[in-house]
Amino acid sequence: MDTPQLCPRFEKAMSIMSQRWTGLVIYQLLNGPQRFCNIESAIGISGRVLSDRLKDLETEGIIKRDVFPETPVRIEYSLTDKGLALQPLMKEIEKWSQDWLQI
Amino acid sequence: MDTPQLCPRFEKAMSIMSQRWTGLVIYQLLNGPQRFCNIESAIGISGRVLSDRLKDLETEGIIKRDVFPETPVRIEYSLTDKGLALQPLMKEIEKWSQDWLQI
DNA sequence: TATAGTTACTTACTTTATGTAAGTAATTAT
DNA sequence: ATAATTACTTACATAAAGTAAGTAACTATA
After folding, report:
1. Is residue B76 assigned to a domain?
2. Which tens digit of pLDDT belongs to each residue from B25-84?
3. Residues of chain A positioned with their CB less than 8 A from the CB of B38
4. Judging by beta carbons within 10 Å of its beta carbon (0-12, 13-18, 19+), is residue B77 exposed, middle or buried?
5. Number of structural domains, chain A?
6. How many CA atoms lie within 13 A of A53 on its CB side?
7. Which of A2, A15, A69, B28 has the smallest number of CB atoms closer than 10 Å to its CB?
8. Which of residues 22-61 of A touch strand C (CB under 7 A)?
9. Residue B38's domain is classified under what CATH number?
């Protein structure tokens, strides 16, 4: 038929956002920089998958990882500008969920 | 730590949108009602998974399924109001992808 | 009449992703 | 010497997704 072809950039964005946990990790980091174990307990993701997701998101330039050589070592994850730019999208998801989902 | 707890409605919205293919199926249906094989070829999803997704989305009230007893039978999928309400969200993904992703 | 074509699926099987639980490294506290 | 802490990794089990073939219902063609 004659539906327009998918824009590769849009497709990429979708593939990032439609990966399990990615959205919640970003949403959680909108609360500010935080550590691995905090993200883990806040959203209920397993450490194994969180480790994968943080690596992927860092590779995509959406989050950054800062190491503070304290004891025990403190590692903070935070959103880059690219990651912060996802806030309006998160707001839309919030809005839709408020308007259309029951508890 | 002291990050706020996740809103169950937001979490539900995220679980819908972060399932693989769901976003693209909805995006595709923003072009108007269309048939199974059209969605399939437009976004490159396998029939097996598309079948699952369409059932899930119908259960969620995001799409509806209309049967036209022609030959061969025509079955059209389209967005409900709840599904159409996801358009602003799709626009945000488009915008972000334009602003932050390279080709 | 037999064969092929069409759409919308389903089924069986393989591969990939995710969940669970235990383990590791580096350091400090007890 | 043992336990505690954080940020992971590893090994293994289960769930989700991909691939390809099959099915049902009907029509068109040879």
Report:
1. yes
2. 999 999 999 999 999 999 999 999 999 999 999 999 999 999 998 888 999 999 999 999
3. 1, 3
4. buried
5. 1
6. 24
7. A2
8. 45-49, 52
9. 1.10.10.10
